[in-house]
């Protein structure tokens, strides 16, 4: 038996100090950690954002609710667009937009973005959208998506962006919950050469959301779509001025609602995570500038997420634009039409900074390094990861094959609820370790607690945050009770993130996945990520997911689902080899009782492994809620394989 809240099995000894040349030119240095937290957020509040009226009080903390930059007035769209044009940066590129069909490209300068936003805001204004009108946005990665968000922000209308892969029910649920009056969508979206019928799905959703009285439809593919007279408006047909002077940026209070972002949650009702104006903007701009070492005049930054997730809100739209960055905006998938599409984009635009998720890195690992090898990736100087713990071998692959062994990697931990990155290396400062998100960002305090709520100085437990940070959520929309019980009751006085973590001897944090996924084998509390990383450490494994199933003798036994690289085929010998590899790498206790080989793992639409469903498969019980699953056929196929497995 172990008395650890979560045991530590993995011992990763590789160290990567910041390259001296990178450190010498970095935006922030080690002394940033010495700045008092109030001074840090106060100074960034003044420096990163332009105010119509300066704030008076920095932070008011009435747990579990914080307010930041009280008394200030500002406008997010003004900060992200207009002020850059006023500062003479109108010709700077805001987005290089790369459509999915090859050759479909657009270069959008800040001056053009300002006109596009003004036009969209005028169209919305004609439909009665003003301060406080809730607007839903259901689009793919087209230029009009950030334009729509910024137009809402310009008018002071809160938005909710619903990822284009979601169903009509998901869309109507969200629109009803927020009380949306207007929906912005597009005819269809491109997806791997096919068409996703966004407008048709939106019609179904609007039928179930009676509060939505108007829609704006952007033409993307030109496909035929039904339009309801009086309700639906083609964006290109509405006459509206694109002169910014015709539609001023509404002065907003610091704490006015900017947007809701729904997370799936485990129960049926999605949680509308509330983000407000000033704290959110300061938080994302500060982190984006410091963590990505942004040099706005020379960098070409690419966050390859979808804007429909919080990562896209904070690090494709609001953070980078507030910092006057030049970004790539890509409509398609990594392997269409070929598996080197991303590397072609990096080469063509001279991308300097790439921010993506472990799931994408593992997909590239599976396809092999030759696709990246065909392109000149020497423009890259910094890499980032977000969304799941990154397996050390995936980190090493990213480092070698994409980063050319010269680019620092920032493994950034955060959540929809946190709004901004909270645990991360700083690329010119931090010695990184593959698999560790290292240290809390300056001005942020994180800790690990054990079962009893006591602080763990070294070892595993529950990750908590100790004090408010500017971009933290202001709650779950319309559900105070759920907000308190989900995040604040487990450890009174702390924000409980729901993730496990351990702290090592250097004080670095290692994220261990969701605490609900932790396995209990013979009294040892084992994190899924450490066993998965041991499997991915094997040269033939591309991706692995593990979960516990009930076992009469050990409490739980570990079941692993493994995807092999390229041409490797499963065999009984391979199965034994992998079980022994895990035993050798991290200990016999973690040896999987069984391994199921599979070409795909069940993932959420945002690309995260869904271990909850793997448990259902392993226990041979009916599957829980599968609405957020990207591809439902993967699980049914898995159940089949699991039943046939040796
Ligand atoms: P839901 O809350 O609806 O179940 P979700 O938690 O996947 O969905 P997000 O807010 O997008 O939605 O993801 C946050 C979670 O992703 C974190 O709680 C953590 O589990 C994981 N995560 C994000 N970044 C990292 C990282 N760098 N390392 C480890 N885990 C990460
Ligand atoms: Mg979550």
CATH class annotation of the domain at 522-644: Alpha Beta
Percent of residues in beta strands: 15-25%
For the sheet with most strands, the description reads: 7 strands, mixed
Instruction: Give the strand order of the largest sheet, numbering strands 1, 2, ... along the chain.
Output: 12-11-8-6-7-14-15
CATH A-level architecture of the domain at 522-644: 2-Layer Sandwich
Organism: Gaiella occulta
Family: Belongs to the ATP-dependent AMP-binding enzyme family.
GO cellular component, one term: cytosol
InterPro entries: Ac_CoA_lig (IPR011904), ACAS_N (IPR032387), AMP-bd_C (IPR025110), AMP-bd_C_sf (IPR045851), AMP-dep_synth/lig_dom (IPR000873), ANL_N_sf (IPR042099)
How is the secondary structure organized here?
Layout: H1 20-25, H2 37-48, E1 57-62, E2 65-70, E3 73-74, H3 76-89, E4 93-98, E5 105-109, H4 110-126, E6 135-138, H5 144-155, E7 159-161, H6 168-178, E8 182-186, E9 189-191, E10 194-196, H7 198-207, E11 214-218, E12 232-234, E13 252-253, E14 257-263, E15 271-276, H8 278-291, E16 301-303, H9 310-322, E17 327-330, H10 341-349, E18 353-356, H11 358-367, H12 370-373, E19 382-385, H13 392-402, E20 409-411, E21 446-449, E22 459-465, H14 480-487, E23 495-503, E24 509-514, E25 519-521, E26 524-526, H15 528-536, E27 541-551, E28 555-564, H16 572-586, E29 594-597, H17 611-618, H18 633-644
Parallel strand pairs: 4-17, 6-7, 6-8, 7-14, 8-11, 11-12, 16-18, 18-19, 19-20, 28-29
Antiparallel strand pairs: 1-2, 3-13, 4-5, 9-10, 14-15, 21-22, 22-23, 23-24, 25-26, 27-28
Helix pairs in contact: 2-8, 3-4, 3-5, 3-9, 4-5, 6-7, 8-9, 11-13, 15-16, 17-18
Adenosine-5'-triphosphate binds next to strand 23 and strand 24.
Protein name: Acetate--CoA ligase
EC number: 6.2.1.1
Domain AMP-binding enzyme C-terminal: 530-608
């Amino acid at each position: 038996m172990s008395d650890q809240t979560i045991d530590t099995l993995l011992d990763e000894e590789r160290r990567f100090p910041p390259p001296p040349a990178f450190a010498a030119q970095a935006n922030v240095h080690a002394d940033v950690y010495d700045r008092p937290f109030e001074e840090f957020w106060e100074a960034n509040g003044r420096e990163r954002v332009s105010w119509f009226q300066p704030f008076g009080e920095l932070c008011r903390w009435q747990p579990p609710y914080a307010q930041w930059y009280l008394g200030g007035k500002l406008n997010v769209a003004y900060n992200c667009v207009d002020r850059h044009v006023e500062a003479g940066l109108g010709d700077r590129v805001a987005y290089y937009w790369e459509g999915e069909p090859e050759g479909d490209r657009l270069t959008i300068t800040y001056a053009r973005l300002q006109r596009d936003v003004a036009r969209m805001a005028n169209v919305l204004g004609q439909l009665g959208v003003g301060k406080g009108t809730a607007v839903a946005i259901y689009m793919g990665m087209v230029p009009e998506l950030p334009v729509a968000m910024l137009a809402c922000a310009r008018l002071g209308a809160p938005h909710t962006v619903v990822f284009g892969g979601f169903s009509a029910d998901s869309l109507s649920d969200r629109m009803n919950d927020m009380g949306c009056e207007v929906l912005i969508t597009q005819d269809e979206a491109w997806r791997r050469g096919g068409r996703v019928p966004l407008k048709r799905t939106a019609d179904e959703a609007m039928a179930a959301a009676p509060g939505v009285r108007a829609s704006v439809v952007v033409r993307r593919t030109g496909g035929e779509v039904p339009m309801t007279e009086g309700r639906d408006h083609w964006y290109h047909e509405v006459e509206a001025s694109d002169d910014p002077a015709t539609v001023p940026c509404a002065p907003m209070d610091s704490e006015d609602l900017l947007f809701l972002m729904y997370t799936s949650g485990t129960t049926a009702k999605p949680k509308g995570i509330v983000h407000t104006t000033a704290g959110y903007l300061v938080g994302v701009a500060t982190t984006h500038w410091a963590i990505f070492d942004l040099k706005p005049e020379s960098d070409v930054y690419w966050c390859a997420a979808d804007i429909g997730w919080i990562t896209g809100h904070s690090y494709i739209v609001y953070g980078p634009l507030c910092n006057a960055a030049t970004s790539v905006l890509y409509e398609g998938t990594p392997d269409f039409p070929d598996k080197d599409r991303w590397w072609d984009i990096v080469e063509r635009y001279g991308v300097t900074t790439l921010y993506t998720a472990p799931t994408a890195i593992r997909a590239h690992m599976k396809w092999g390094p030759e696709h990246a090898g065909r392109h000149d990736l020497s423009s890259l100087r910094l890499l980032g990861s977000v969304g799941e713990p990154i397996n050390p071998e995936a980190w090493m692959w990213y480092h070698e094959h994409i980063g050319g062994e010269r680019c620092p990697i920032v493994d950034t931990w955060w959540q929809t609820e946190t709004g901004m990155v909270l645990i991360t290396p700083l690329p010119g400062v931090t010695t990184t370790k593959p698999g560790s998100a290292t240290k809390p960002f300056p001005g942020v305090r994180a800790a690990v607690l054990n079962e009893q709520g006591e602080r763990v100085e070294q070892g595993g437990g529950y990750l908590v945050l100790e004090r408010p940070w500017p971009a933290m959520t202001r709650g779950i929309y319309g559900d105070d009770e759920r907000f308190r019980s989900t995040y604040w009751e487990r450890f009174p006085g702390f924000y409980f993130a729901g993730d496990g973590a351990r702290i090592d001897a250097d004080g670095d944090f290692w994220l261990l996945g969701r605490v609900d996924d932790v396995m209990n084998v013979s009294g040892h509390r084992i994190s899924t990520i450490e066993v998965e990383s041991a499997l991915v450490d094997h040269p033939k494994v591309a991706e692995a997911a593990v979960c516990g199933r009930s076992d009469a003798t050990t409490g739980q036994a570990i079941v692993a689902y493994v995807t092999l690289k390229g041409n490797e085929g499963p065999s009984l010998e391979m199965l034994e080899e992998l079980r022994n590899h895990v035993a050798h790498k991290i200990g016999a206790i973690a040896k999987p009782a069984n391994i199921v080989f599979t070409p795909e793992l069940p993932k959420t639409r945002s690309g995260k492994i869904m271990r909850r469903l793997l448990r259902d498969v392993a226990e041979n019980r009916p599957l829980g809620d599968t609405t957020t699953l990207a591809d439902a056929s993967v699980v049914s196929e898995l159940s089949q394989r699991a039943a046939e497995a040796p």
